[in-house]
Amino acid sequence: MSNNDVKNDRNDEEVSRFTLTDEEGNELEFELIGSGEVDGVMYYAMIPAEDADDENKDTFEYVILKSEIDENGEESLFTIDDDEEFDRVADFFDDMFSTVDFDEMESEG
Question: Residue ranges per domain, the chain?
């Protein structure tokens, strides 16, 4: 996925779902699991919505997308092509997720 248009679909459970459109025009639904700024750039960690809906799944692989604002103020998300940048951002999200107790979050909801 490179150039993705973002459409936010919030539901009553306060879960952020996004429909991303890839370069070929295919729409894919993702659930936002984290976001953060690294070196002045905003990044989003997302999992495919079908994985998020699978209650039997213990672990998830997530994708990291980089936010860029165009000259019209429109936000687009891109995959990270630079290996060093990806490693820095992946470390940021790994640290973020390692401090979250997901079992505790599930029991609260």
Answer: 4-108
